[in-house]
Here is the input.
Amino acid sequence: MGFPLKKICISILWAYSLAGCSQVDSGAKPDTTPEPIAQVQTIKLQLSEISETLTSYGTVLPWPDKLQTISVPYTSRIEKILVNEGQSFQKGEVLLLLKPADDATLQLQQAKVELNAAQHEQHLVQERLNLKLATQMELATAKLRTEQAKVMIANLAERGINQNHQLRADHAGIVHLLSVQQNQIVPAGSPILQWVDKNQWVVRLGVEPEDKERLQLGQEVLLTPTNKPTFQPIKGQIATITNQIDPITRLLNVFVKPDSNQTLLINDYIEAKISVSSAFTLVVPRQSLLPDGKAYRLFTIENGHAVQHQVQIGLENVTQAEVIASDLKEQDDIVVLGNYELEDGMAVEVQTP
Here is the structure.
C-alpha cells in the first residue's frame, strides 16, 4: 500500500528545511576561551653584596681569668652582707662586715699567753746566766722564742683579728658570686665573694661541631639579647675557639669579646649572627625562589609573559639568596609575588605594590 502524495511532499520539504538550518549553523564562528592572565608583582634584579651568617646562642659570662676573688684573712663570722649577686659597687664601698670567730679570738689569746711565757723564760735564763748557771746558747733560744711570739701577735693584729672588720672594694665592679650567708663561720683563706670589672665580660656561644671550619679568630659577630628582639645588635669578635665538645650541650664552645658591655647583663641569653662569607653578586629575595627538586626556579617577565629559569643557590641568609644562572642578568624583572600560580609562557599583568 503506497503513501499519499501530499504526505511525501511535506516530508521532503521538512528534510530540506533541516538541511538548510544545518548549513547555517555550520557556518557560525566557534566560541573562544580567553587566555588566563596572572596578577604578579616584580622587582629589578640587582647586583648586591650578600653575607651568609651562622646563627648560634649563648650566655654572657665574666672572663674566667678576670674574676677577682676576695677571701677572709682569719676565721670569721659574717656579721652582715651589704651586696647581692649582680650588684654594681664603687671603689671604697663596704661589701661585708666581719667579726672574729671564737677560734680566731682564742688564737690571739694563745699568742699573748705564749709571749708572756717566752718573756718570763728569757728573764729566768738571763738571771741564771748572771749566776753562771746558763749558757749564751740557752739565752739566745729564749730570746728567739720571745721574738716569734711577738711576730705572731703582730701578724694577727695586722690581719685585724682583734677587731671587727669592714671588707671594702679596692676597685669598682660587679658582684658575680657570693659564697657565704649571714652569720656563717668562714675559715681563714676561704673565698667569700667573686667580682668582675664591667669591661671584662665575654659571650660563650654553642656552635655545631661541623661548623668549626667556617670560624676563625677575629671574625665579626652581631650580638642581640633574646629578650630584646628590637635591640640594636652589639658588634663583637671571636676571641677563642675551643677544641672540645661540651659534654652537656654537645656543642663547641666559642667565646666572643663584645665591643661594648654597657647594655649586656651577666647570664643574659644572646642570639649571635656570625658572618662566615660574603660576595658581590646577583641577589634575589627568598620569596622569589620556588623549590624544584635539588635546584630552584624563578620567573622573569618578558613582553607580558612569564619566563621560567632554573637556578642554583650560592650564599644565602634569612631574607636573600645568591642566584647562579647563565640566562639571568641585571635589571631583569623578577617575580616576587604571584609566582606560585605561574607557568612558563603564561600571560601576566604586573601590579604596582
Observations:
- The helical segments are 5-26, 102-130, 136-158.
- The radius of gyration is 45 Å.
- The domain at 54-64+198-279 is CATH 2.40.30.170 (Elongation Factor Tu (Ef-tu); domain 3).
